[in-house]
Amino acid sequence: MDLLRFATAGSVDDGKSTLIGRLLFDTKAIFTDQLEHVEQASKRAGDDYTNLALLTDGLRAEREQGITIDVAYRYFATPKRKFIIADTPGHIQYTRNMVTGASTADLAIVLVDARKGLVEQSHRHAFITSLLRVPHLVLAINKMDLVDWSEDVYEQIYADFVTFATKLDIPDLTVIPISALYGDNIVTRSQNMPWYTGATLLHHLEHVYVASDRNMVDVRFPVQYVIRPQSTSARDYRGYAGQVAGGVLRVGDEVLALPSGFSSTIAAIDGPNGPVEEAHPPMSVVVRLADEIDLSRGDMLCRPHNKPRVSQDIEAMVCWMTDDPLREGRKLAVKQTTRQARAMVKEMHYRLDVNTLHRDLEARELRLNDVGRVRLRTTQPLLADEYRRNRQTGGFILIDEATNFTVGAGMVVEAE
Amino acid sequence: MEHTHPDYRLSQLDELEAESIYIMREVAAESERPVLLFSGGKDSLVMLHLAVKAFAPARMPFPVMHVDTGHNFPEVLDFRDQRVDELGIELIVASVPDAIARGLVTEEPNGSRNRIQTPVLLEAIEKFDFTAAFGGARRDEERARAKERVFSFRDEFGQWDPKNQRPELWSLYNARTHLGEHIRVFPLSNWTELDIWAYIGREGIELPSIYYAHEREVVDRNGMLFGVNEFFRPKDAETVFTARVRYRTVGDATLTAAVLSDADSIELVIAEVAATRITERGATRGDDKVTEAAMEDRKREGYF
């Protein structure tokens, strides 16, 4: 059994909570005490029906306001897979929360109300999915019961979306007509839409092929921690611990250490249960080398002829996550893989309208929830790949050095 | 030598294990003085097992700390000491009875020491100047926990501010703190109760005996079975009877209820957990039922 992480984007109006409630309920991931609790809370609040949103809206402020503010993580499993849902809010003022949820997702479900078709918010959700390079997108056209289970409506929304998606980078799109309320095409096949011959949502989640999503080509091993036992039994042990961020490392492989440029050979790889012959993402292992070279946290092992970019000049898309706007000249701390540096915003190229994808070249600042293209200069070179090639080595966070708050998320792009 | 799967997918347990180990190494690398909060319960035993693996063959580079309510199951306390001895690690005990005697906290009317643990925990963190504390909480346990970050920032009062959490993207964790602040780190955030049990089974992790079915004198209070012990006395109208039970969670002995069970082996426990229809906190904790946001409120004050 493997693990699939997916993000859902949408608002209560789109039936997102109903959809999640349905998935959890039909896969028996909602427990009777949780359900009783929600039923009582709904009754107290005077709701006509059991409000399944109360299952996911865990904070007092969310329940009071009836909105999802922050990402909630939910869990369920079928005999095929374990699933982690990052349930993210749909409103524009919570764009940063959707960005956060999407950053770790293998798949994103964008919900659309069949009566309304694509709206501004659908475009934004699809754009964020594409920006964060979530490999699989499911467009779930919900409330099909309210449009007479119409194939025409489905086809029209499908076509509209394909037109819009040409501006985006979406490697895998699946469009499923559903009724979250009645359960059509969620777990069981809809009797009301015989014209739809594709998979149900759960079947798709269980079977979508994700093995090729991680980069298995470019060997990238950011050194996280050096293990040097201070004991007599393992005195000569010197191991480099880390999580494989790309490619497959094998014992006997020649490796290059960055930024030093020294090379060596992998003498051994220790997994959590002892020695292994090879290691791939996302394994956490300890690599031992044949030679003693200068290698510490923040450095990276790669292959001699396949290196990340080593540069202090970083072109990136940035999502800004705090009230105090980002402007040229601002200095910040940056964390990328296990590497830390300071960075300065040298140039703001444009701000992107997340609804229309219009580039505002005049923009001089990024405000909370804005996305834009910037050039950074760092104090140390980053060892980074283009984000579209490797999400682990191409993503970084920006930290305010005074407050220590995480204020931005960045994705490395090639210089234009 | 183990060989990995030909299509390079990890099983869900291997992926969770890799994530937890990564988180622990990240803390050891970035935080100056971490501590692992350890109760002898199943989640903290899994966490300890992962910590040992994360730094092997070196010894784990931080001590463990038990916030001792004084309301312990003796089996669990013995087991705690046994594990600490085996591993040769440092154990710090922050004692609630001691804090009551010193006047730091006062006993609550209902005798529960759940809430008054918080000042004791915070005092110990301050005294030892810990910059990070690993906790065994999981997001599937409770709604407020489902919203909490893996690296959860606490201000100088130990408070959690759910509306002002640091965004957490990819696996880039922000462990930065100012003097007096700390980070709570939850390496088991993405594990479910069933994952924990499956992992205990796979790894052969030893647990205190009370997690497995045994005969015990209990009373039925509000539909929950409480074991009779030196801290939990039956009220006059309550009947004491012997039942075959096990504990799904282990906490304050005055608050933690047992469940009827015949599961006396890891295989049977896994089968039972897979089939259960009640959450572990719902089945066993009197304290979470108080209000709609009981856990959120306690966490804001600095609770685990």
Short account of what is shown:
Chain A has 416 residues and is α+β, with helices and mostly antiparallel strands. Chain A contains nine helices and 25 strands. Helices cover 20% and strands 35% of the residues of chain A.
Description:
- The complex is a heterodimer of chains A (416) and B (304).
- Chain A has three domains: 3-212, Rossmann fold (3-Layer(aba) Sandwich); 221-302, Translation factors (Elongation Factor Tu (Ef-tu), domain 3); 309-415, Elongation Factor Tu (Ef-tu), domain 3, CATH 2.40.30.
- Chain A is built from nine helices and 25 strands.
- Chain A has helices at residues 16-26, 32-45, 53-56, 60-65, 95-103, 120-131, 151-165, 201-207, 391-394; strands spanning 2-9, 72-77, 81-88, 107-113, 136-142, 172-177, 221-222, 225-227, 239-243, 249-250, 254-258, 263-271, 274-276, 278-279, 284-289, 300-302, 309-320, 326-327, 331-336, 339-352, 359-360, 365-366, 371-384, 395-399, 406-412.
- In chain A, a hairpin with a 3-residue loop joins strand 2 and strand 3 (81-88).
- The longest helix of chain A has 15 residues, at 151-165.
- Chain A is globular, with a radius of gyration of 23 Å.
- In chain B, 33% of the residues lie in helices and 15% in strands.
- Chain B has helices at 12-30, 42-55, 74-87, 96-102, 117-128, 193-203, 266-275, 280-284, 294-301, and strands spanning 34-37, 64-68, 91-95, 132-134, 151-154, 182-185, 214-221, 224-227, 241-246, 259-260.
- Chain B has a six-stranded mixed sheet with strand order 3-2-1-4-6-5.
- In chain B, helix 1 (12-30) packs across helix 2 (42-55) and helix 6 runs antiparallel to helix 7.
- The model of chain B is unreliable at 1-5 (pLDDT under 50).
- Chains A and B meet through helix 2, helix 4, strand 2, strand 3 and helix 5 of A and helix 1 and helix 2 of B.
